[in-house]
Design a protein that fits this description.
By secondary structure, this protein is of the alpha/beta class. The protein is built from seven helices and five strands; from the N terminus they run βαβααβαβααβα. The protein has helices at about 65-75, 90-95, 105-120, 145-150, 170-180, 190-195, 215-230, and strands spanning about 50-60, 80, 135, 160-165, 205-210. The structure holds adenosine-5'-triphosphate and D-gluconic acid (GCO). One of its GO terms (biological process) is carbohydrate metabolic process.
């Protein structure tokens, strides 16, 4: 497995490699994301890109992962996977009743989500091109959880994973979660989310974005950061 501080070998400019061949067999989940019509900077132009990018938008519950994930999905015109959709019912019930998940509760969820991300990188049909990437909203609070996700790109030189960590203060986070009424994750869970959080310090594949500002500002910061990262691969 890739260590967080270790940069992999430069990508080999060859045909796309099927990433699913390089990871252990996992549950065969299908992605539920879809392509969006608008493209600010397209990853899936008419010719196959040499690199497929997995953008994992991370941070504690309520930090804005889904909001940012959808912005990225639209900008990159690639599938978007909402991590919450991959939690088991028991995990959701647990969180909904105010009990934090344990490491053991999270492994299968992370593995399912990782497999869904891998699946999303394959073309939808024999005649279509593979997407330039996939956006995944996933709290990935601890480094070891990010390491589980990193396996998606392990051994696949044409797949690159990035973590987009959404950073904000406890006060702003509490405010956002308190205003959100219909979600199973209530504000009494925020302390445990922050207690579990290991910010991605020194992890070369992680980008930290301050998301305390209004949505337009956050959107701009995220798009700028992603554009800058993509430029490294052009
Ligand atoms: N920059 C922002 N400023 C103000 N409110 C925001 C901002 N970004 C998101 N929100 C609001 O904060 C709430 C949480 O956002 P969102 O659902 O995107 O977070 P999340 O990290 O996906 O949450 P969860 O992981 O719990 O599903 C939503 O009500 C959303 O509209
Ligand atoms: O690891 C966890 O504790 C969970 O993934 C949570 O972070 C939620 O799923 C998510 O953020 C929805 O509120």
């Amino acid at each position: 497995m890739l260590s967080a501080g270790e940069r992999p070998q430069p990508p080999v400019p060859s045909a796309l490699v099927n990433p699913s061949s390089s990871v252990p067999i996992m549950p065969d989940l299908k992605p539920n994301g879809s392509s969006a019509p608008t493209t600010m900077f397209s990853q899936n132009s008419n010719k196959p890109s040499e690199i497929q990018h997995i953008w994992v938008v991370t941070g504690p519950a309520g930090c804005g992962k889904s909001t940012v994930g959808q912005v990225l999905r639209n900008a990159l015109s690639c599938p978007f996977l909402e991590g919450d959709d991959y939690h088991s019912k028991s995990n959701k019930d647990k969180m909904g009743s105010g009990v934090p998940l344990t490491d053991a509760d999270r492994w299968d969820w992370l593995i399912s989500l990782r497999q869904a991300a891998i699946d999303a990188l394959s073309p939808e049909s024999e005649n279509s091109h593979p997407p330039g990437g996939v956006v995944v909203a996933c709290s990935a609070l601890k480094q070891k959880y990010r390491d589980v996700m990193r396996v998606a790109a392990y051994g696949s030189p044409s797949v690159q994973i990035h973590f987009v960590y959404l950073k904000l203060s406890e006060a702003v986070l509490m405010d956002r979660v308190s205003q959100r009424k219909s979600h199973y994750m209530k504000s009494d869970m925020i302390q445990s989310q922050l207690a579990a959080l290991e910010e991605p310090k020194g992890e070369w594949d992680a980008i930290t974005i301050n998301v305390e500002g209004p949505q337009e500002q956050v959107q701009q910061s995220v798009l700028d950061a992603v554009r800058e990262k993509l430029a490294e691969y052009s």
